Amino acid sequence: MIRSTKDFWSGLIYILFGASAILIARDYGMGSALKMGAAYFPTVLGSLLILLGSISLIRAFIVAGTPISAFAIKGLLLVVGSVVTFGLLVRGAGMAIALPLLVFISAAASSRFRWTPTLIMTAGLTVFCVLVFLKGLGIPLPVIGPWFGR
Amino acid sequence: MELFSNLALGFATAVSPVNLLYCLIGVFLGTAIGVLPGLGPTATIAMLLPVTFALQPVSALIMLAGIYYGSQYGGSTTSILVNLPGEAASVVTTLDGYQMAKQGRAGPALTASAVGSFFAGTVATFLLALFAPPLAEAALKFGPADYFSLMVLGLVASVVLAQGSLLHAIAMVVLGLLLGLIGTDVTSGTQRFTFGIPELADGIGFVTVAMGMFGLGEIVRNLESESERSVVIAKITSLMPTREDWRRMIGPILRGTVIGSALGILPGSGSILGSFAAYSIEKKISKNRAQFGKGAIEGVAAPESANNAGAQTSFIPMLTLGIPSNPVMALMVGAMIIQGIQPGPSVITEQPQLFWGIIASMWIGNLMLLVLNLPLVGMWVKMITIPYQLLYPAILVFCGIGVFSLNNSTFDIYLMGLFGILGYVFSKLGCEPAPMLLAFILGPLMEEYLRRAMLLSRGNLMVFIQRPISATLLALSLLAMLSVLLPSFSKTREEAFKE
Fold first, then answer.
1. Strand B183-184 relative to strand B191-192: parallel, antiparallel, unpaired?
2. Contact B49, B401 (CB under 8 A)
3. pTM for this one?
4. Could you tell me the residue range of the domain that residue A39 belongs to?
5. Given A18, A34, A79, which is nearest B458 (Cβ)?
6. In a domain, A23, yes or no
7. In this complex, which of A111, A117, A133 lies closest to B227 when CB atoms are compared?
8. Per the domain annotation, does A28 fall within a domain?
9. A93 and A143 assigned to the same domain
């Protein structure tokens, strides 16, 4: 039976990455040790990764390890989701919409979320970012985006 | 003497009003992020990198350097006052620092830490000025094979010094090297692992990876333990240590400085390892070892001196060889490249103003930090009370805007999210992200040097052991690897990380 879930899953991930690297690199031209092609280094690294993954996988059945602690799925989804939402909206809807949304979605991941301080901080942060990054440093992002006819 | 004329040039550069201002901004920000738990120098420098595009190269690097060593000062304040390490290198300081605070001696603990850091910073800056030029001169003799072996040594060291399983650390390095190859291959022009996505043709920016793994990943990890986080700040009565305290901290500060400076040069460690080593050595040799863990001032002075010394000397490989020894230094290399400066041994001779200006600014910055951290400690204490639930959304905003501004592309934002997930999953599986990031940066360089070495030696692998420099470096790597397998060393390694 699996005695170390950490070793088991990380081993699988290494093998997956190593194998895909080798498979994809087959199209790139191997070359020789003297004139190494684009596939040479990735193939060497991929093989190494498969080897390490296999050791990890075998070890998972022999040596007992600490179990994986629970994943904070909600936190992960909200934090990553907030950033992705920001990316999707910032060009079209503009900073004034995308930034507050990022703050609210990500802040919802905290168990200590409270509306009033979050609202005050969002307002301050939006003004600060518009002034410093958009006006000051000239980052080409709209305050209010073209989706709103501007 | 040449050293003094060089230092004079450095000070002349560093005391120009503009550079003084950026030095102050850097150490101020550094102290702030050091004080705030859950925000480290890697994520901060990554966020601020785009801001530095508009600055002069000297000013930009002075500021970024200030953030790094400034965070070493700030980290101790949180360790002592709230028993939370503000910075990874301040973990051991919580052991005795917080105990001192509980006994009403927070003031002397803060003073010991600040004075120790200042002394260590002064010595380490001087060491940097003394040893960097001859090292850079030696580095000019390096051939491609030697560079390749040097990077191998760097990666091996980062593996040996990583927390947790050796196997996983090595695998993370290999994975990092592989991910670093994404993009257009310089030699053949082949687009590798780009899946036809045009944004990937130039490769993945390391800032994107750093922000994802260290920024986003870290936030999710912090949210996990949110309920355990309770901030009770110890009161500071008097900052002045007693005569007895002064007497007891001299030895630890001196030893901490030496240990920290030596270990800081090692690739892969920076300031963290030094603080652990200094603490365990003091614990072994101190006359007051029974007091360790119960509020011994030695247990604050030694690691705090060591981490600041290490933060300073970890600039040596970056400034002399152009090889980053930790993620923060990799970001510094990135900042130099963006400014059009190719990091390497020639920086000292071609950009003397830049090189000596940075070094001089470090000493000035340390002086500023002493003032910022002792008389103004009350201001930082207020900062600790900023609740994390307000802080992390703001961090995410800066990450989002920062990563966008690198290429003015929203694709990088999604990529950062992906690396956030990857970083979190790997940390859950007990795999450290730091060696991976270092390998990610070194990957393309290593391939390039390997190629050149092979071309020069006509495909003969023996070149790596025939060249004396390369052979020495590889022997050192082998030695480092073997030392981990020795039972006595691996025991100390485990103990060091447990504490």
1. antiparallel
2. no
3. 0.85
4. 5-62
5. A34
6. yes
7. A111
8. yes
9. yes
Same domain, A32 and A56: yes
b/e code B225-258 from CB counts within 10 Å (16+ = b): ebeebeeeebebeeeebeeebeebbebbbbbbbb
Quick check: B406 and B205 in contact, CB under 8 A? yes
Nearest CA in chain B to A39: B192
The number of domains in chain A is 2
Contact: B451, A9; criterion CB under 8 Å: no
Q: Is A54 within a domain?
A: yes
pLDDT tens per residue, range B163-218 = 678 889 899 999 999 999 998 888 788 888 888 888 888 888 888 888 898 888 88
Please report the pLDDT score of residue B293 as a whole number. 84
Mean pLDDT score of chain B, rounded to an integer? 86
How far apart, in whole angstroms, are the C-alpha atoms of residue B29 and residue B303?
A: 22
Q: What is the DSSP letter of B235?
A: P
Question: What ipTM, to 2 d.p.?
Answer: 0.93
Chain A closest-CA separation from residue B373 CA (Å) = 27
Q: Which of the residues B155, B396, B445 would you substitute to probe the A interface, choosing the one with the greatest number of A C-beta atoms within 10 Å? A: B396
Same domain, A128 and A85: yes
In-domain check, residue A94:
yes
Confidence of residue B227 (pLDDT cuts 50, 70, 90): low
Tell me the per-residue pLDDT of B323-370, one tens digit each, with 9 for 90 and over: 887 888 888 888 888 888 888 888 888 888 999 999 999 999 999 999
User: Are B171 and A112 inside 8 Å of each other by CB?
Assistant: no
